[in-house]
Structures are given as C-alpha cells and as structure tokens.
Amino acid sequence: MPARAKLAVMSVPLGQLWTQEQFFAWAEAQEMRYEFDGLQPVAMTGGNIRHSTIALNVRAALRYRLRGSGCRPLGPDAGVQTVNRAVRYPDALVSCSKLRDEDRVVPGVVVVFEVISPTSGRVDRIVKLGEYAAVPSIRRYVTLESTSSDIIVMERTAPDETRRTTALTGDGILRMPEIDIEIPVSEFYDDIAFPEAGEVSAG
Known about the structure:
The protein is α+β, with helices and mostly antiparallel strands. It is about 20% helix and about 25% strand. Strands 3-6-7-8-9-10 form a 6-stranded mixed β-sheet, sandwiched between helices.
C-alpha cells in the first residue's frame, strides 16, 4: 500500500494542503515516484519483476490492437485526474481523445488497468475503485492479480450506471466494446512464473 510521503524538502509547509500544480512542480525533482491524493503527495511502493512484466504485457497487447484506431494506450507515467483533482498513475490506460505531448493528465480516459500486488491491494481495490468510478469517461476498470492469472473487471456503459463486476481466469477473454477489441487473459501473463502454493511473494 502506498505510504504518505515524507516531505523533507519542499516549497509547501508541512500540514498545508497542496494544489495539483504544486505537486507536479515538486514531483519533477524527486527520485521516487509519487501520486497525489488531492491533499498531499503519496509515495508509490515499488513492485517486482512479475508485476512489471504483467503491466508491460498489458500495454503491448493494447498497443498492438489499437494501432491506427484513434485510441491510444499509455502508462505508467500518464496521469489520471480523479476526485478533488487527485492524480493517479495506473499501470496502463486507454484514451480515445486528442492528446497533447505537454499534458500532465490524460483527458477522456476510457479504460484503466492496475496490477495488484500485496502492498497495493487495498488502495487498488477500494480507494482507486471509488476514484475511477467518479471519472465520467471511464467505462472499464480492470485489476490483474500478480500471483495468479485472474482478473476482475468493473464495467459500465454510462457514467450514472451501476457498475457490473466480472471475474475472469486465465482461459477467459477480456472483451472491451468501448474500444472495440478483445484480449485473451492468458496474453497478459506471458512469460510469468507464479509462486508455488504457500510461497510468500513480496512487492
């Protein structure tokens, strides 16, 4: 789970609420990666090779299928603005809106992907679930387990519609009609060796 950042050197006094603009200016000078929870920076915990490989597989699968479609996959350095101007950096996202290279947050995000790890599970499943649900353009939020080939899909066809939740396993197919593509779940887990039963996996 991300821990609140220890802000030793900054232009905003401790305890004072930050603006999104102050966060961006400060974050550029940091070696670690941070998200912005709408109040202050929050440190992003590091993942492991398995986490990184799954995230890379997701972006590669999206890029191959979306080439020339007008929709663009991005991540993990592309920001999504959520509630109270918070900024999250999902493992992958898709936008079909016109993008400018200098944008700090991506407009018109349609699909968001987060790879779950033991340290990020609560934030990804609860906190970010609520935040992404508050973004009208987001139609689908996909969380991918990093210790098994299982994914959870939260989808809706309109901003005010109740989300439907579907669980898919390694032999399933993720269908995304909002961007007109389908991806076998197994493709997200190419070159992944899962831990044996009872083995503890960090990150």
